[in-house]
TrEMBL record:
Residues 28-57 form the YjiS-like domain. InterPro entries: YjiS-like. It comes from Pontivivens marinum. Pfam families: YjiS-like. This is YjiS-like domain-containing protein.
């Protein structure tokens, strides 16, 4: 039986190709979607809101430009 390892920010998720890998893919796509949405929202926050959460404008811009898979 072959194994496929998907890695995300929480570590490795091991799923079997012969088994039910869809759950692994669905979880990975959900993580990517959440990251993309969060970064898109972060990109549009005003300077005073960024200060409220303790993030500089430079850091917010840098985070917003990262790809969803990273």
């Amino acid at each position: 039986m072959s194994d496929l390892t998907l890695t995300n920010f929480a570590g490795s998720v091991r799923t079997s190709i012969a088994g039910a890998p869809r759950r692994g893919y669905v979880a990975l796509v959900a993580i990517w979607t959440r990251r993309s949405r969060s970064r898109r929202h972060l990109k549009h926050l005003d300077a005073h809101l960024l200060r409220d959460i303790g993030v500089t404008e430079w850091n917010a811009q840098r985070e917003a430009e990262r790809p969803f898979w990273d």
